[in-house]
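anyone seen this seq b4? input:
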Amino acid sequence: MHISFESELYNIAHNITQIRTGSCLIHSHTTYEILYMLEGDTVFSIGGTEYELQPHTMLLIPPNSFHGIHVLTEKPYDRYTVHFDPGILSHENRALLLNKLPAKTDSSCCLRAMGESGILEMLRQFDDLAVSPETLHKPLIPIFLQALIARILIKLPVRNEENAHTPQSLKNDVLDYVNEHFTEPVTLDTLSARFFVSKSQLNQTFRRMTGTTVIDYIIRKRVSYAQQLLLNGASAQQAGSAAGFGDYTSFYRAYKKHFGCSPNKNKHENTHHGQVSEDLADKAFLADGFAITMEEKRSRQNRGSGKK
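predicted toks r here
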């Protein structure tokens, strides 16, 4: 089964696949994501924490959060995925609908036993919409999407702010700190001293929870943040500095390595539409059961356009 609605502001899909993935591809995007799992044998990593997904588990993933899914077997993997940009929400409702969603990756992102919440019934409206006249799709999707988010807000547990900031395990403490301070001069030495752990142990712990090293994670956070600043009108120099790069050369090299183009080229050639489309394309493996790297994707695009 496969239904899909896509525009520059959203990507909504219902998929059932039976493809085992070899690994968990960690990635991030600038859109919000809602994943509701009906069936499957999967492990989802979000913010460095792994969750074994049970039927009727819902994940709420904030923008720019590193996450990925590992499909362990060929058992049918049935899920709804909703990616949306805040621009799809009406101005009068936007703040209300967004301010209660998780702003960072923690335990509040994973909600279990949601089968009686009414959220699945709202998601199934998109199945019904798929067989309705196409003229109804564009006007009804924003209405359905806002109603879905409103329903989720009603069902979110009340957060205990006092307990929300209780110190957690080493890995969560380190990840929370890095996510909050990645634009600052964070190094292995400073983290090692702050958390009273050796640099080698720190890197090993970090690699287990994110799939990469501390420094690589920080660089990826910085270039993703810099890209947002560029799309919002900042110069390449301003974006690199604000993202935490000490000099333009290191920013240029990191940006080109990550995105395959210079920050100036990205600034002039990418529109908001293009960025959201790229973000959604990077998650094609979630819908289709395949994991492709950015380099593979560009190679395919170049071959299709005749570029060398």
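The beta strands are 2-6, 10-17, 32-39, 42-46, 49-52, 57-61, 67-71, 77-84, 110-111. DSSP finds 14 helices and nine strands in the chain. kinda curious what u guys think
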